[in-house]
Design goal:
303 residues, alpha+beta, Arc Repressor Mutant, subunit A, D-Maltodextrin-Binding Protein, domain 2, 3 domains, five-stranded mixed beta sheet, three-stranded antiparallel beta sheet, 15 strands, 24% strand
């Protein structure tokens, strides 16, 4: 039997969690996937899956084989990529996930530029402020804001995300302009629910009379809670309250007078941004090229 093709199907079934999902990903019928996995089990003389009416899971032998099958598939893909690099250049599809606003304003333009440099490359972009499970979603690379705690991922620093506090002029005219982060306890604030600290906002002082870099923490509350930074900006623009957003979220809203920067001597603490991917012994050239290009482009940003 074609063991390599069966290994590809096995990896896809494990990542997608079902035969039907793997069939959709591979562009074949579910019976073909089922037959190929049955043939692989017969070839190896063991059961690879624990099947029930409600779920499908890998057996102990299936789990043991999965890691090795994934390495085989990756090694073959890398060998093919190296040959293509010598001829037509790097090619293939890279599935990459990132935050909604950052993806729209920075990531997608950079990937478009990279695709022009390497016409054989294709990018499948998933924009979501939630953390995507790389294995479950079949994602090769992900951009994440905040500390990386998953030890199964390799994290490459991309940039520091500078954040600013903003409010609409209409809100400030109605409620007054805060001069210190502690004043926020008396204001309506738009809470970004994906922030690890939730409604506890942290600022660093640059003001006279305060220790430089001193951490100032304040618990905030308000009528709106939003799960992405574009929504926070929209709520602030509508006059719902004060918000904290990444600087890259703003385009020309300040210049147009839609929002106003506040507490500029008490900047919200910056957050690290990383490019993360699963640990691999063999990394395809298409993924290596994408990682190196994005890190190079991030390093060229002013500041």
């Amino acid at each position: 039997m074609d063991v390599l093709a069966a290994f590809r199907v096995l990896v896809c079934v494990a990542e997608r969690g079902s035969f039907s999902a793997a069939a959709r990903e591979l562009g074949v019928g579910q019976p073909a996937v089922s037959r190929q996995m049955a043939a692989l089990e017969a070839h190896l003389g063991t059961r690879l899956f624990n099947r029930s009416a409600a779920s499908l899971g890998l057996s102990d032998d299936g789990l043991a084989l999965l890691d090795r099958a994934r390495l085989v598939v990756q090694a073959v893909d890398e060998a093919q990529d190296l040959v293509r690099l010598r001829g037509r250049g790097v090619g293939g599809r890279v599935r990459i996930a990132g935050p909604v606003v950052f993806g729209r304003t920075w990531l997608i333009p950079k990937l478009a530029a990279l695709a022009r440099l390497h016409p054989q490359l294709e990018f499948d972009v998933v924009l979501n402020d939630s953390f995507v499970d790389l294995a479950e979603e079949g994602v090769d690379l992900a951009i994440r804001v905040g500390e990386i705690t998953d030890r199964n991922l390799i994290a490459r620093p991309l940039m520091a995300v500078r954040r600013v506090a903003i409010a609409a002029p209409t809100y400030l005219a109605r409620r007054g302009v805060p001069t210190h982060p502690r004043d926020l306890a008396q204001h309506d604030c738009v809470v970004y629910t994906r922030l690890a600290t939730g409604s506890l906002w942290r600022f660093e002082s640059e003001a006279e009379g305060e220790s430089e870099g001193e951490a100032i923490e304040v618990e905030v509350a308000g009528p709106l809670r939003v799960n992405n930074s574009a929504g926070v900006l929209a709520a602030v623009t509508a006059g719902a309250g004060i918000g904290v957003v990444p600087l890259f979220t703003l385009t020309d809203q300040v210049e147009r007078g839609e929002v106003q920067l506040i507490l500029e001597r008490f900047e919200p603490r910056s957050l690290p941004m990383h490019l993360v991917y699963a640990s691999r012994h063999h990394m395809p050239a298409k993924i290596r090229l994408t990682i190196d290009y994005l890190i190079e482009q991030a390093g060229a940003l002013p500041g």
